[in-house]
Amino acid sequence: MVARRPSRPKVKLTSTWLDILLVATGLLFLVLEVIFTGLSWSHIPDKVPSHFGPSGQPDSFGGKWNLIAVPIVQAVFFIALYVLSRFPHIFNYPVTVNEENARRLYRIGKTAVLFLSDGITLLLGLIQWSLIRVSLGQQAYLDRWWLVVLFFVVILVPMVMILFMIRAWRAAS
């Protein structure tokens, strides 16, 4: 038997300047990656790294067309998270959502998803950039800076947003 979630208020949120900035930034990351890949395409060898070991050295290779997968995945994540951000009433929240706090919690939830979208788009773009540089012989291994971006996207943004939600819940209580 499936447990039903209690009904939550549906609140129409208008886009703020931050929402618009986050969507534009994510779109910019995506467009820049596609442009960089397109401009580099004729110089990329037919065999490119497809996997890196713990040391950052390539340990598996595949065809040049494998590089097309990254922008496609990036675009799918960007679009999916943008669409998801428009339905904050279906998110999971660490606090109870009611009429008094719904607007504020939904605003925080929407912003969190848009930050997550930008972080994933940036992360995939940086990985693509590094893959192309390794393929072109401009660097020998996958840089480890992406771990910092990954930490920011996966741990720091959600933690900060949860703290904001708890504060909003306490303020409404």
What's this entry about, in short?
The protein has helices spanning 17-40, 69-85, 102-135, 145-172, and strands spanning 47-52, 58-63.
- Tally the helices: 4
Tell me the Rg in angstroms. Answer: 20 Å
Q: How confident is the prediction overall: mean pLDDT?
A: 86
User: Which class do the helix and strand fractions yield?
Assistant: mainly alpha
Major sheet summary line: 2 strands, antiparallel
Number of strands: 2
Contiguous uncertain segments of 5+ residues: none
Percentage of β-strand residues: 5-15%
Question: Within the largest sheet, what's the order of strands?
Answer: 1-2
Helix/strand order: HEEHHH
Give the distance, in angstroms, between the N- and C-terminal Cα atoms: 32 Å
Principal-axes geometry comes out as elongated
Q: Estimate nothing, just give the exact number of structural domains.
A: 1
Could you estimate the helical fraction of the residues in percent?
A: 55-70%
Keywords: Membrane, Transmembrane, Transmembrane helix
Domain DUF1648: 28-74
Organism: Alicyclobacillus macrosporangiidus
InterPro entries: DUF1648
Q: Helices and strands in order, then pairings?
A:
Blueprint: H1 17-40, E1 47-52, E2 58-63, H2 69-85, H3 102-135, H4 145-172
Antiparallel strand pairs: 1-2
Helix pairs in contact: 1-2, 1-3, 2-3, 3-4
